[in-house]
Structures are given as structure tokens and as C-alpha cells.
Write a structure and sequence with these properties.
Blueprint lengths: L8 E6 L3 H11 L9 H6 L12 H14 L7 E9 L9 E11 L4 E10 L6 E10 L5
Antiparallel strand pairs: 1-3, 2-5, 3-4, 4-5
Length: 140
């Protein structure tokens, strides 16, 4: 098993359907009306796009999928996360989620990773930006 290095990264394409948003809404209990009522959306800080937006934490769940299955992979422990939601993640829009290694502490088996979601069509447009700390006894 190869150890990850600073600069290593992985990207995956994602999109969210309205059915997925509704399922997350039901499972999470986050029934915020900005996701379902156009008038509530218009009054929100996001504006009218909110009614077409994915819950922020729903979008961020892509990082747990990547970390636990792809990079570093099985056995990864997600220790901390800091995220900025710069723009709404919209339903039926293609995005790219990226995880990139910023630093590795081999003695403690830890790595600081950059976590980004950006539009697939306009890659310079970042919608979610953050960092996380992961632990993995074999890959770090």
C-alpha cells in the first residue's frame, strides 16, 4: 500500500437530484423551507437559488465518501473538518469534488487535506472550500 504524499489528489464528479435533496431533508430532519418554498428562498441570504440548492452538509458528505473509500481509503478516520460554503450547490448541476494532500505527519499518521467542490463547467468557480484532518495507520 503506497503512502500518500503532499500534492497527491483525487477528483470525482458529482451531481444532486431533487429526489436526493428530499431524501436528505427527510433523513436529516432539516426541513428549512428555503429548500422548498420559493418565497422563503427569496427572503433568505442565498436568494431565489436556495429553492434549488442542496443542503450544505449533504454536498459535503462527498468528502466522507472519498476519504473512506478512495483516498486515503478504507481505514481512514475523519478527525476534523472546516468548510466554507461560498456559493449554493444547485440541484441538477455538475460539480467536481477534489481532495488534495496539504501536509503529512508520518509519526502521528495524520494528514491535512484540502477539500473543494467546484463547478464542472466553470472550474474556477468554487462553491465549497475547506480543510480536514485525517488519520490512517497504513497510508500516512
Amino acid at each position: 500500500m503506497n503512502k500518500i504524499q503532499v500534492g497527491d489528489h483525487v477528483e470525482t464528479h458529482i451531481a444532486f437530484s431533487q429526489d436526493q435533496v428530499e431524501e436528505f431533508r427527510q433523513r436529516s430532519g432539516d426541513t428549512n423551507t428555503i429548500h422548498t418554498d420559493p418565497q422563503a428562498a427569496e427572503r433568505s441570504a442565498i436568494g431565489s437559488d436556495a429553492v434549488r440548492s442542496v443542503h450544505g452538509m449533504h454536498a459535503a458528505m462527498i468528502f466522507t465518501q472519498i476519504l473512506g473509500t478512495q483516498f486515503p481509503g478504507d481505514g481512514t478516520v475523519y478527525r476534523s473538518i472546516a468548510l466554507d460554503f461560498d456559493e449554493p450547490v444547485l440541484v441538477d448541476t455538475d460539480y467536481v469534488a477534489e481532495v488534495r494532500v496539504l501536509s503529512v505527519d508520518r509519526k502521528r499518521h495524520r494528514a491535512r487535506l484540502l477539500t473543494i467542490i467546484r463547478e464542472a463547467v466553470e472550474p474556477a468557480r468554487t462553491v465549497v472550500y475547506g480543510t480536514c484532518l485525517v488519520v490512517h495507520n497504513e497510508r500516512l
